[in-house]
Structure of HTH cro/C1-type domain-containing protein:
Amino acid sequence: MITIGKYLRTKRLLKKLTLQQVVDQTRSVYNCSTSTSVLSAIETDKNKIIDGELLFVLSDLYGIKLEELQRLIIRNLQTEHE
């Protein structure tokens, strides 16, 4: 099972973006504030609850369809409760 954090990290790396570049772009393009420490915590699954606004911004920045994220999140939640 791939976690949402690992999935987002893979998508970021495929875009060849550093955490700092993501922070800079979320601020300049989307007017959304985050930090490298928040993103790192998400990517390493230390922070399993992701702000919805940030999730939308990351999905747009990384070119991820929201339906794809929805399926991954739902599947992970169902697996955790089995």
Observations:
- Helices lie at 4-14, 19-28, 36-43, 52-62, 66-80.
